[in-house]
Amino acid sequence: MCEYCGCRQVEPIAQLMDEHFALLDLGGAIRRALRDKGGGAATELLQEFRELLHRHVRLEERGVFAAMKAEGEFVDQVLELEQEHDDLEQALAELDLTDGNVVEVVDRLLAELSEHIDRENLGIFPVAVVSLGATGWEIVTRAHEEQQAAAS
């Protein structure tokens, strides 16, 4: 991840990036648990991963992505990222930890997630920082505030 544009200095973007790192860390823990034949641990970690991913995707789509679409900025790219969110959540819902190929499936999903995160961290987030106007940032801020209120 680069630090050139300064987008990590913008709190909502920093939060989303931090969640990306948490997802990647959890993904690595799932991978290790599966390789070590720790089915119980993998099941618990996968549930934690799904929950974090769901909260993260909801925040991203109701915040930065909604703001970008509202302002007509990079709409096609945002729609593509949203479709990738749907695809990942569907793949996780269908994931069978007892499948003999589960390690390979998880490896593929995590590789796709890593590429997706790079497109957000290095693409759409820096674009959002420099292109969103006041109305866009109001959408982002409201989404983050609503999520915090719901978590309280």
From TrEMBL:
Question: What InterPro entries has UniProt attached to this entry?
Answer: Hemerythrin-like (IPR012312)
* Cross-referenced Gene3D superfamilies: nmb1532 protein domain like (1.20.120.520)
The record's keywords, sorted A to Z, are:
Coiled coil
Q: Which domain of life is it from?
A: Bacteria
Q: Give one Pfam hit by family name.
A: Hemerythrin
Using the record for this protein, list the coiled-coil segments as residue ranges, or answer none.
Answer: 42-98
Q: Ranges for the Hemerythrin-like domain? A: 12-127
Q: What is this protein called?
A: Hemerythrin HHE cation binding domain-containing protein
Q: What species is this protein from?
A: Thermasporomyces composti
Per the UniProt record, the lineage of the source organism begins with: Bacteria, Bacillati, Actinomycetota, Actinomycetes, Propionibacteriales
